[in-house]
Amino acid sequence: MSGTTRTSAGLDVRCRQILYRSWHRGMREMDLIMGRFADAEIGDLSEEDLTEFERLIEVTDRDLLGWITGELETPSNYDTPLFGRLKAFHTHTSPIHS
């Protein structure tokens, strides 16, 4: 089940795939974090950002959730401006418990 509130109309295939994969991760908490971020930002991401977001999608839910919540240290190769935006979006704009 997808929680997306954004239509995929007008998005290219790559962005539609990213949107789908963001909402279908496996751990519901990560569906909400990644999916809401993708809903809000997918249309404004640069090609570099899209590549970085695809890389983040490949990270296991446990690791990514740990990095976002601060329970685990974020490896330097993932501590990018896009990851910072994702983390800020979750912690300041749209927490999963709202």
From TrEMBL:
<dbReference type="InterPro" id="IPR005631">
    <property type="entry name" value="SDH"/>
</dbReference>
<dbReference type="GO" id="GO:0006099">
    <property type="term" value="P:tricarboxylic acid cycle"/>
</dbReference>
<dbReference type="Pfam" id="PF03937">
    <property type="entry name" value="Sdh5"/>
</dbReference>
<comment type="similarity">
    <text>Belongs to the SdhE FAD assembly factor family.</text>
</comment>
<protein>
    <recommendedName>
        <fullName>FAD assembly factor SdhE</fullName>
    </recommendedName>
</protein>
<keyword id="KW-0143">Chaperone</keyword>
<dbReference type="InterPro" id="IPR036714">
    <property type="entry name" value="SDH_sf"/>
</dbReference>
